[in-house]
Amino acid sequence: MVTLALRFIFCACCLMIGALWTSPVAAHVSPAVLFRHVQQSEVAARKTVDPFDTLVVLISRSTNTCAVTMTVSSGGTISLVRCNRTTTHQLSEVTVSKFFDDVNSATPLTSLTERRNCIKPVSFATTTHIVYGTQISPDISCSGDDMGQKLYHDVFSILSSL
Q1: Signal peptide position in this chain (predicted)?
Q2: Do residues 113 and 104 touch, judged by C-beta distance below 8 A?
Q3: Domain containing 73: what range?
C-alpha cells in the first residue's frame, strides 16, 4: 500500500515537472504595476532638464520583497525608493559612466530580447525594466542577449554597492 502511494506521488511529480518543462509558467509584471512604476519614474525624470540625463530602473515586487525604483542621474546621484522609503546615494563617476555607456549602446531598449523559456516562480519572481527617455526595456532579468544580461549585471552591481 505504501509503495503504491509513493509511486502515485512520484508519477504526479513527474507530470508536474513535465508540464513546467514543456510550457513554463509565465511570471511577469502586470501592465498595471509597470504603468504605476513608469508614472513614478516620469515624475522623477521630469525633475531633470534632459530626460536622457536620467536612467530609471524598475524592479517589481514579489511575495517577500518590496518594489524598487532606482533613479540614476548622469552626475552620479541615485535616488532609491524601496518599501515607500527614499534614500539618496552618490555613485563613483566610473560606475555611472559605465552604466550610461552600456544603456546607450543597447538603445533602442525595446530591441533587447527576452528569453522565451524564462522559468520564474509565480510568487517569488521579480522583473527588472530600465526606462531611458521614452524607451522601456523588456524584462532584463530574463534577457536573451548579452547586452541585456550586461545591463542586468550593472543594475545589481550598483544595488549591491549601496
Answers
A1: 1-27
A2: no
A3: 26-161
